[in-house]
Each structure stands twice: as C-alpha cells, then as structure tokens.
Amino acid sequence: MIPHRDKHVAVIGCGYWGKNLVREFAQLGVLRIICDSSQQILQDLKTKYDVEAVSDFAKILAMQDVHAVVIATPAPTHASLAVQALAAGKDVFVEKPLALTLEDALLIEAAAFKSNGILMVGHLLEYHPALVKLRALVAEGKIGKLRYIYSNRLSFGKVRTEENVLWSFAPHDICSILGFVGKLPVSVQAVGSANLGKVEDFCLVNLEFEQIKAHIFVSWLHPFKEQRLVVVGDSGTLVFDDVSVDAKLTLYDQQAELQDNIPVLKLNSKIVIPLEAASPLTLECKHFLSCVESRETPLTSVKNGIDVLTVLQSAQESLKSSGKAVYLKEVQVVNG
Prior knowledge:
Elements (H helix, E strand, L loop, with lengths): L8 E4 L5 H10 L3 E5 L3 H11 L2 E3 L2 H6 L5 E4 L6 H10 L3 E5 L6 H14 L3 E4 L6 H11 L6 E11 L8 H17 L5 E7 L8 E7 L4 E7 L1 E13 L3 E5 L7 E11 L2 E11 L7 H15 L7 H19 L5 E2 L9
Parallel strand pairs: 1-2, 1-4, 2-3, 4-5, 5-6, 7-10
Antiparallel strand pairs: 7-11, 8-9, 8-15, 9-10, 11-12, 12-13, 13-14
Helix pairs in contact: 4-5, 5-9, 7-9
C-alpha cells in the first residue's frame, strides 16, 4: 500500500488541462515529479510547486519512488504512454479518451491485466456531486421510468487541432448516458462539420438504446457556454446545469398524460437540489489515490473507458459516412 502522504505521483503533460492535475496532486501532498516537452511550462510549474521537472518520460519510468503516473498529454499519445507506464509497474490515471482506437484500448487493458495495475480513465463528470446525486435520485425512482436523455456541451473555444469536438467534448456525456442506461446503445448516428479547419467543430450524436433514446450536441463555436444534462422520466425530469451557480441540479415534478385523447402537461413543482460543495477534480484525484492504496477497481475503470470508446469510434464512423447509422452488434469489442 502507498500512503497518501508519500510523494509518489508523476504528472505527464502539464499544459492546458495537465496543469490543473499538477495543482491538485501538489495540494494533496503526493506530487513527486512532472514531465512535459515544454521547458517553459516545466520551469513555471517547478517554481510554483517546488517540484522536480523533467522532459524525459523514460526517467520517470525508471524511478522506484514513483508508483503512479497521471497522463494528460494529447490524446494520440495516451495508449503508448499508458502501456509503457503499466509495463514499468506503475498505476495509471489517463485522461479521456482512453485511446483513439479500440485496438489501442484493448492493448492498455491487456497491459493493466498483466501488471495487475490500477488503470483509471479521467471521466471527470462522474465525480461531480451533481451527477452523483442525479444518479441516486434516478435510482430512487424520483422521475419514474426513463424516457429520454440529452446533453449539450457547448462553448466558444478552445479550438483543438489534434482531435475533433466529438473526441474532445463528447466522452463526458457518453460516459454519463451509458451510466444511466447500463448498457451500450443498439445504434449510433452522428453528423457534424469542420468550419475552421480539418477537424469537426460541431457534432450531433444520436444514441438509440433498446428502451430509450438519447442525443448529445457538442460544439466549440457556440456563442455562449452551456453544459446541460437533461434526464426525462415518465413522472419528472432532472436537469444538471453545470454553468449555473446556484441551481446546478433541479428536479421538475411534471407529468404528461392523455385526457379524452388530448395531451395534458402538468408541472407540480420545481425543486433545486442541495449539493455537497466539493471540486469534482479534487474528488476524482482523491478517488485515484484511494484506488492506488486499496487496490480497488476505479469507478471509471478501463472497461468504462472501452465502452465509451466503442461509442466514440462508432460515432466517428457515422460522422465519416454523413450520418449513416452504425449498429454496435457489428462492432467487435472484448472488454472482459
């Protein structure tokens, strides 16, 4: 077991998102070393957090006092770095997406199995107090039987060039929706376009499950920020609005029924649900450290990452074929 107080964590990739992970693990008192290709980034963070900084990943793999590696590099590098770290006996926290192909994801899974290492995927939203509470309310039957789920993740920037908006934004929402339904969709459809460069900057994804439907809208060319998840049941609706300051989770007690063959809508109440005041990123990082110490399977495990990647890859295939439906029974996945 690795006590939380020991400095045993290395963060690989300290740029746009990685610097936040550096901050969290430093504040938790476990940051041993950081690694990045930019000397300027390394110097800035080395000074700010009084931490050792290197540009050579191989050096970290050889360090006996580094037991856990956090990977926040560009998505195309995730698979290679994760496999190397696992082979070196390290536990791994890899940012989403787990990989860019199912083949690479399965290689990571095999490496984790062989090394008996912890492999956690950075699906941050799963640790958000609002989503945790939302899941609990759905499980309690507060909105009745699920009918429909949709998610909007929209903003004006940051525009990426390594990955399109589907791969950058949608993993959060795919992961959330799969968690509610408990299984992969029957089919996936996706449409979008590249308006500024070579990668799509907006995308609409339709997911068809056996009992319900869901859709995801993602864009980084939207005039204002919106991060909203709506879960509709037959007796109510739950809305998770992550942009809202004082109403992140709202329960609408509402019903739609037929009276004399005429649809009648009833809104009985609207309740803002109180939530724990905690940072999702802090909770996520603490969960990883807990799994490293206890050897328990993370909430967002490699299987979770493979399921999300299965949907992502199917959506990408549909996107390339101008929205043709991709049926997942035709996608070969072996995730344990």
